[in-house]
Amino acid sequence: MKKGNKLNKALSVISKIMEIVHWIGAGISALMVFITIIDKNFIAECIADEGADFATFDAYGFDVYALTQSGDVNNFAVIMAFVGIMITFILMALIFRNLDIILHTIMGNYKHATSTSPFQKDVVRRVREMGIFAIAMPVVGFIITSIITGVSLANGIVSEVSVSFDGVIIGLICLCLSQIFSYGASLEEEVDGLI
Predict the structure, then answer these.
(1) What three-state secondary structure class fits 148?
(2) pLDDT tens track for 93-136
(3) Is the dihedral of CA 166, 17, 78, 137 positive or negative?
(4) Burial class (CB in 10 A: 0-12, 13-18, 19+), 64
(5) Residues 141, 163: contact at Cβ < 8 Å?
(6) If we measure between CA atoms, which residue out of 99, 100, 133, 105 comes closest to residue 121?
(7) Which of 10, 28, 29, 58 is the most exposed place for a label (fewest CB within 10 A)?
(8) Can you give the pTM of this predicted structure?
């Protein structure tokens, strides 16, 4: 049992660090949206300083290349890319937050836990939320890239965007796991009712 506790504690620390990193990333992305709106040349100057590789914005499966065919910066694409990155980072922060709470529940350190069993309604809800957040990430990426593509094409600009739907697979796995945990929770309630 001690090895499990050490592993749970290590995973809890890692998940908390990842949550904080993603909240910071979301804040930086929000700041970049604001800066790009205020100073339309900021990203263009950064790209000029750093090179064309700096013109690609990506986060967890969606990519936006912000240079037009003429080499100009598509500021709308940059702003939308940072909005998508911000939302994606928020969703990842919430996934790691839920993971941390689940680990604290199992270790018996969460004040709202009814037991140290993973088979309880709060854990089921949190695993289900993790699945929903994972599915939401590629959906957000698809919406953002669709908006960028639509607006860019309407203005005669060709933008390169791509979306990976790996998050849907992970989300579906989490939703399936939540059903297993839900079944385990109902069995545990029945056993507790018999005692």
Answers:
(1) helix
(2) 999 999 998 888 887 776 666 666 777 888 888 899 999 999 99
(3) positive
(4) buried
(5) yes
(6) 105
(7) 10
(8) 0.82
